[in-house]
Predict the structure.
Amino acid sequence: VDSSSNTVSVPRRFSLDPHLGTGFPTMGFNEMLDKISPQVVMVERKDPFDWSWMCMPRVPCLSNDKRAPPFFHINEMLSWGLAVVMGLQHCLAMVGGIITVPLLIAGPFDARFSATEQEYLIAAGLIVSGLLSLVQITQFRLPGGYMLGTGLISVVGSSFTFLPIARTAIAFMMREDSGEMCSSDADCSMPWAAQFGPLAGQKIAGTTNAGQCNLDTGFCKYSGQQAYGAFLGTCLVCVWLEVILSFCPPKLLKRAFPPMVTGVCVMLIGVALTGTGLKYWGGGAFCADNSYKRMRVTVGESYEGDWTAPGLYPTTSPCAGGNCAPFGRALSGVCSYSGPSYDAAKNMTMGDRTTCEQFNSLPGVFPANTDPAMSYTKCTSNGQVVLPFGSPEYIGLGFSVFVMLILIEVFGSPFMRNCEIIIALVFGYFVAGVSSYTPPGSDDKLWYVTPNRIDNAPSITFLWVHTFPISFYAPAVIPLLICFIVTTIETVGDITASAEASRVPTHGAVFDGRVQGGLLADGINSFLACLATTPPNTTFSQNNGVIALSRCANKRAGYCCCAFLILFGILAKLSAVIASIPECVLGGLTTFLFVNIVVGGVRILSRVNYSGRNRFIVAVALGLGIGNAIVPQWSANALFTPSTDSFTKLGQDTVVIILQTPYCIGTLLALILHTILPDEDEVLEEDLSILEPKRELEYEDTVIKGDRELPSQHDMSVPAPVSP
C-alpha cells in the first residue's frame, strides 16, 4: 500500500498446492491471461468520484468551477458501478455512427431490403460492433512478438468510408442481369421490396418488383440481397490488404500516404456524404433526385352518351393516337395517356387523362408547372406524411436535431456532451412522434411515426437470422482497396489520438505494438464482420473525443460499453424503433455526422506544407473529386457506349464506379501525382513563415492525476513482446 498516492498494488493470484506446500504460487487465471495478453499492473482508486461535475448542466458565463475532474487510467481498478455508467456513456456516443451505415444501405431506395431485413442489419451492426470491440480492447499477444488489438478503448463500427462505394456498387449491380431466367417479374425468386405505398417494405414477386425481369434478355436483374452479398464477398477478398499493411512500420505508412493524400480522401468522403445527408433531411434521397420533375394532369371534357369508339372522342391531348408510347415519338417516356371511359350508370363518357412531367425543351409538352405540390415523385419514407422534397415540415423536423445539438453544446454536462448524437436523435424522434400533418381540405391527421414496424418486430434477434448470398464483384475491387488503404491511415491517427487521450506513451515499443495490433485487429475484424453480414468494421475516431471529454480510459468501462452494444442489438424492438425514424429526422443527424468528416479532412490538410507542388496536387485532386460530387452525371451519363462484351463491360463499370465515387478519383489522382512529381529541393524564404512548427509530444515517466501520481506504462514493467 502506498499511502502517499492512495493506491494499492494488486498481486498475482496464489493458490494452495497440496503437493508443493502452502507457500508456492501456481498458475491461476491471471497467469493464464498473461500467456495471451500483455501483463499489466492494476491500481485501485480510493477517492470518490465527482458526480456533480459529470451530470450537472453548465450555465454559460456563470459556471466558474475550474476543478479538474479525476482521470481514470487504463489500468485502474474502477468500481463496476462507475464502469457501467462510463460504459453506457461511451456506448451512447457510438450508437449514432454505428447504425447510420446499415440504415442507409438497407433503405428503400438503395438495396431495397424488406423492413425485417433492414431491422436485422441494424441489430447485426450493433452486435458485431460489441463483439469485435472486445478484441481491440483486450489486446492479445501473437507468436512472433506481434499483437492483436490496441489495449485501449477502441470501439469499432461500420466505417463511413465504405458507404459511398457500397451504395454505388449495389446500384450498379441492381441494373445488371443475374443468371436467373424469367419471363415476368413474378419469376424472380428474390424480388425487390416496394419503395412506397401500403406495401412499402414488403417483397411480393410480380407486385413490388416491377421491372426486375429484363424482358429483352430474359434474365432477372440482381436483387438488393444479391448485390449486398457481392459487396460483402468483394470486401472479404480486399480486406487482406489492410492485414498486410498492419505489419509495415507506421512511419513507412505515413511516408507512403502523406497527409496530402489522406486529407484529400477524408475530405471527399465527407463532401459526398454531406450531400446525401441533406437529401434525407429534405425528405428522402429518391425524391430529392427527382425533385426537378413536375406533374401536370389534364382531363378532357366529359360528354353525355358513349363516345369511346375510335376517333369519336374530340380529344385535345398531344398524346392521343400513341404519340406518348414508349420509344415512339418526341414525348417518349415523358407523358402517360389514358383514353376516355364510358360510365353506363350515368350514361356519360368521362374525359381522357394526360399526365406529363415538366420538360420545357421537348416539343408538344404542356407549359412548365412550377408548383412543388405537383412534384412527380414525392417523399414517402416519413410515416404517413407524403410531401414534396424540401417541404417546410420535413426541414423543421430535421432542424430540431440541429437545435438540440447546439443546446447540448451550450448547456450540457460532460455526460450529455459525450452522448449528444443519440440525445439529439431521440429528441428529433420524439418531436416527430408527437407531430402530425393535416392535408389541406381534410380533417384527417397523418403521423410521421407509426407503430406498425415496432409492433410487428420480434422481441429478440441475433446474427445470421437473415443471410445474403456471397459473391464477387470485380468492378468494386480498386475502390475497395482504396477504402482499406484510407482506413489503415485513419486508424494509425485514431490510435495515436486515443493513446494521447488515455495518457499513455505515443512512441516507443509499446505504442508501436498498439498500432500494429490495432491495424491487424481492424483487418481481421472487417473480415469477421463481413462473414457476420455487416459492412467492414474499423476503429471509430469518436473514441478519442469521448475519452478526452469523459476523462475515462479504463478498460472496464470499455467492456461495459461492448456489453451494452450487444444488448441493444439483441433487443430487436430497439432496431425497429431505429428503422421507424423518419428520413427527415435521420437527415438532420447524418448531415452533422458527415460534415464532421469534412472537418476532419480539413484538419489533416492543414498539416500540409503548401509548396507549389503540394498545392497543385491538392487542387487537382479536390477539383475532380468535389466537382464529381456536385455533378455526378459528368461521368455517368454518356461516357461509354454500353458494350455486349463481358470483359469490356467489366472495364467500363470499373472506370465509371471510380469516377462516380469522389474520393476514389481524388485519392488516385493525389497518389499518382505524389509519386510522379519531383519533390521541391528548397522552399522560398518568404514561405517559411507560414509553415507550422513541428512539435513532438513528450511523455513523462509518471502520469499526473490531480493531486497524486499513477505509474505510467514505463513503470509497469510491461515486457517487450517475445516469441513463445
